[in-house]
Amino acid sequence: MKLVLLIPLGLLAFARGDFVKYDDYTVYKAIPENENQLATLKSLQHDITFQLDFWTEPKKVGIPVDIMVPPERKEYVQDTFERHQIKYDVMIENVQSRIDEEKLSNEQSKLSTEDFNWSKYHTLEEINNWLMLLTKTYPDKVTLVNGGSSYEGRKILGVKVSFRPGNENKTVWIDSLIHAREWIAGATSTFILNQLLTSTNSTIRSTAESHDWYFFPVINPDGYAYTHSNDRMWRKTRTPYGRCFGTDPNRNWDYKWSDGGSTNDPCSDVYAGPKPFSEIETRSLSEYMKGVAKQLELFITFHSYSQLMLIPYGHTTAHLDNYNITYPVGLKAVASLAQKYGTQYSVGDIAEIIYVATGSNMDWLKANYHVPFAYAYELRDQGQYGFLLPTEQIVPTGEETLDSIITILKEADKYID
Ligand SMILES: *[C@@H]1O[C@H](CO)[C@@H](O)[C@H](O)[C@H]1NC(C)=O
Ligand SMILES: *[C@@H]1O[C@H](CO)[C@@H](O)[C@H](O)[C@H]1NC(C)=O
Ligand SMILES: *[C@@H]1O[C@H](CO)[C@@H](O)[C@H](O)[C@H]1NC(C)=O
Ligand SMILES: *[C@@H]1O[C@H](CO)[C@@H](O)[C@H](O)[C@H]1NC(C)=O
Ligand SMILES: [Zn+2]
């Protein structure tokens, strides 16, 4: 009986070949107010028979933790909160109805399959087709590039955008969807790419044209395809490991690998993989990055959610490298991000403001290639919708995020020129 309980949802879905349902799954927002309550939440997270999906991790006292709980565990989890006097709210009553709403909103967007805009979340195929279309629309500016490949044989497609020669030492890298379920991340990177190509705003134009750009909207293509075909809440790659699937591709890079904030359990959502670069996605993309890393002025990777701007590194709270420059620039960036819609972000070292997490693409790049400016964004929101951010928020999220990038580059250019 116990063994049956341990079979993860993903595997059952794979066996049945249908969509994982989250009927009556509830997301609670719990706020630890002292160390004991924080420890209680951490042990709930690590309960091996429960395998609860923590949408955000227990970080520190005072910072809310979002936990998705299946119907049969709700009573136990609520009892646990009450026994330890942990304050909590229901954030999402029924996760499946949110997923259904998102699906409906995607279907109702009235876009024909060849059309691409930011009124919906697009599939991998739609995104890749759009990238290819850009190379035809802007043949002198946009080049299709192949950043690597996936376990299931997909390509990690990207584009290089260059408006004129001479910008090679001012290159910007933007990637997204290393974590499959963080859909707003891919919508934001494609929004920004489109703005750089089409905007008539003079500030956007001059920023676009004075840099070279690499965009890789979906760097975990198998995982992202799987969130559309089988399980909206999938995070990892799809490599089989025993009875479970996938490595967390943002715990798999070869810098401080498995040095905290990941696990050696293939069923866990933060499985670091059997060895550094065990995943073909991270290995092949890292090979590609080596070729451009020395030219990078700015590296950005989009995640969701929590509204944070994170600076290397994830293994230590020490302020290493040029933190004393990137931190004040980050503060300016989030101030400009807040201007349009009032969206508030916090800035800081990964280990300091979220939690120890090792093996990320950003840390690998910063440590090996000393890219002057490197930031990981945790985009909107702060847990109202979590990973299921409504499609109406795609455009505002893209706009405010682009504002922050313009500010970063204005500052960063001072150090490059
Ligand atoms: C996307 O296209 C649809 C159909 O043409 C249109 O109704 C909608 O306003 C567009 N949305 C955006 C954000 O451009
Ligand atoms: C870019 O940097 C390299 C190495 O410092 C240098 O040789 C090259 O001339 C630079 N290119 C431009 C356009 O400044
Ligand atoms: C940052 O720290 C370095 C090394 O400690 C120092 O040389 C530099 O002046 C500092 N820069 C700023 C802007 O504080
Ligand atoms: C142009 O874009 C910048 C950056 O997003 C913004 O601050 C500015 O208000 C825009 N200008 C106009 C005329 O819309
Ligand atoms: Zn993420």
UniProtKB/TrEMBL annotation:
Gene3D superfamilies: Metallocarboxypeptidase-like, Zn peptidases. Residues 120-412 form the Peptidase M14 domain. The keyword Cytoplasm does not apply. It is found in: Secreted. PANTHER family: PROTEASE FAMILY M14 CARBOXYPEPTIDASE A,B, ZINC CARBOXYPEPTIDASE A 1-LIKE PROTEIN. Involved in the digestion of the blood meal. Belongs to the peptidase M14 family. This is Zinc carboxypeptidase A 1. It comes from Phyllotreta striolata (Striped flea beetle).
